[in-house]
């Protein structure tokens, strides 16, 4: 039963006020922008093109399906966030309800989700940035534009822009949450304005005939696209990782989670309808790297397309910022529990951030993006996220049965139906991912099991406490 020993919620709350505590400086407004910063990026500016080729105009249905999976999970997240407002997101929630081994597995899974998401988005950012430089007649040496073997017929060694942007974000996060939130808030407001500009200009060029046939590949294409574009919703759970830096977490965390997800889902639906209404879906086969600006170019609105490219760069920057932020806070929580070395939970005396952890993870993410071609990384991130959403939804049901006495500022409605719907949607989308994705995911989890039994279980704070008692 040691595998499923749980951490006392009162102890979790007390730890958050201990020596290694983080600075509380985030409001509901900041959390909402943090969520939007994590969600609007690669999904809306890149994946809409590949999704349209898979589902046709019915891509809007794919976004709704993926959004429902995220929405049902968000309700479960919001209840947990109001009960356990500490760093670690679903890792911490699982430790309090499902036990240490499950918590370790989900923490290990979140490494896959957050770290690889930062790396994959950095590659997309690099492409847009190089395109922007080319517009000014500036071209980087080919050897420094992509990872080895990433570009057929070209000799490339290192994706320098991808590495540098992650290093810049790492520097910002290491300096403190106040500085990070200011930069994030400004960039989020700008990119939302860019999306609204696209909607305002693009709606005049919609041709309803382009929506026919609406679902050229039937339900198979719609479901496959839903599993793929789920990447567009990855990151809203990073809001939950900000619990210990929130002024009033029991009230503001649920608001930040639900507001950010609702706003982004509405924008995804409208943008997808307009984009597929301007461009016949098969035209995206020619160039899927920047589908939103491509739609405006076809409409003859090149000046707006330029703003969209800028919005894409800012959008991807905030995604990387929030995802790397979430990763550092989860590592911080796991280290505090003894499951990874204690150095990862050291807090800088001046900046009040996990300084060393931030730089370590930032460098790792930067090198992955610079050195490894990551074509299938989006699917790996998707399966990791869906797995996390499944566990947190189960955790809400378990906690309602085992600890009905806990004060819940926010209660997930319709328990157990809503959490079970979240589980069903997530498992369904996982079933639509490629077999190679499942193989890679299971290998990653197998490595995690080995690490747990060779290191984490022995060094666990709970294990140390039990040994002292015995």
From TrEMBL:
One of its GO terms (molecular function) is amino acid transmembrane transporter activity. The chain crosses the membrane at residues 28-47, 59-81, 101-125, 157-174, 186-205, 217-236, 257-283, 303-326, 355-374, 380-399, 411-430, 436-455. Keywords: Membrane, Transmembrane, Transmembrane helix, Transport. One of its GO terms (cellular component) is membrane. Its main location: membrane. InterPro entries: AA/rel_permease1. It is a multi-pass membrane protein. Gene3D superfamilies: Amino acid/polyamine transporter I. It is found in: Membrane. Pfam families: AA_permease_2. PANTHER family: CATIONIC AMINO ACID TRANSPORTER 4, INNER MEMBRANE TRANSPORTER YGJI-RELATED. This is Basic amino acid/polyamine antiporter, APA family. It comes from Lihuaxuella thermophila.
């Amino acid at each position: 039963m040691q595998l499923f020993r749980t951490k006392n919620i009162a102890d979790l709350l007390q730890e958050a006020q201990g020596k290694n505590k983080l600075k509380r400086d985030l409001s509901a407004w900041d959390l909402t922008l943090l969520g939007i910063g994590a969600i609007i990026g690669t999904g809306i500016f890149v994946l809409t093109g590949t999704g349209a080729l898979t589902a046709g105009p019915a891509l809007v249905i794919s976004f709704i399906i993926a959004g429902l999976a995220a929405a049902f999970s968000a309700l479960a997240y919001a209840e947990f966030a109001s009960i356990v407002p500490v760093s670690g997101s679903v890792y911490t929630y699982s430790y309090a309800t499902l036990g240490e081994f499950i918590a370790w597995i989900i923490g290990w899974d979140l490494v896959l989700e957050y770290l690889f998401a930062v790396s994959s988005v950095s590659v997309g950012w690099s492409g847009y940035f190089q395109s922007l430089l080319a517009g000014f007649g500036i071209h980087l040496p080919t050897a420094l534009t992509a990872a080895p073997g990433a570009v057929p017929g070209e000799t490339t060694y290192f994706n320098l822009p991808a590495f540098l942007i992650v290093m810049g974000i790492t520097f910002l996060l290491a300096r403190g949450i106040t500085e990070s939130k200011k930069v994030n808030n400004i960039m989020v407001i700008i990119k939302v304005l860019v999306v609204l500009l696209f909607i305002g200009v693009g709606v005049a060029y919609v041709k309803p005939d382009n929506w026919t046939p609406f679902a050229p590949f039937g339900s198979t294409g719609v479901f496959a696209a839903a599993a793929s574009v789920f990447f567009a919703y990855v990151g809203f759970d990073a809001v939950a990782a900000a619990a210990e830096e929130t002024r009033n977490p029991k009230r503001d965390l649920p608001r930040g989670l639900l507001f950010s997800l609702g706003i982004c889902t509405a924008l995804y639906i409208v943008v997808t309808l307009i984009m597929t209404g301007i461009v016949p879906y098969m035209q995206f086969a020619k160039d899927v790297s920047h589908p939103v600006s491509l739609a405006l170019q076809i409409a003859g609105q090149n000046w707006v397309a330029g703003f969209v490219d800028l919005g894409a760069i800012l959008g991807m920057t905030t995604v990387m910022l929030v995802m790397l932020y979430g990763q550092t806070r989860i590592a911080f929580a796991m280290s505090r529990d003894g499951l990874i070395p204690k150095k990862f939970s050291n807090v800088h005396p001046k900046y009040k951030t996990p300084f060393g952890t931030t730089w370590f993870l930032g460098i790792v993410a930067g090198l992955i993006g610079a050195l490894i071609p990551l074509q299938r990384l989006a699917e790996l991130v998707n399966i990791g996220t869906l797995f996390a959403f499944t566990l947190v939804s189960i955790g809400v049901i378990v906690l309602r049965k085992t600890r009905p006495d806990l004060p819940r500022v926010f209660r997930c409605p319709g328990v157990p139906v809503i959490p079970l719907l979240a589980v069903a949607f997530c498992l369904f989308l996982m079933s639509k991912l490629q077999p190679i994705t499942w193989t890679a995911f299971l290998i990653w989890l197998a490595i995690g099991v080995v690490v747990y039994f060779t290191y984490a279980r022995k060094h666990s704070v709970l294990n140390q406490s039990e040994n002292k008692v015995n």
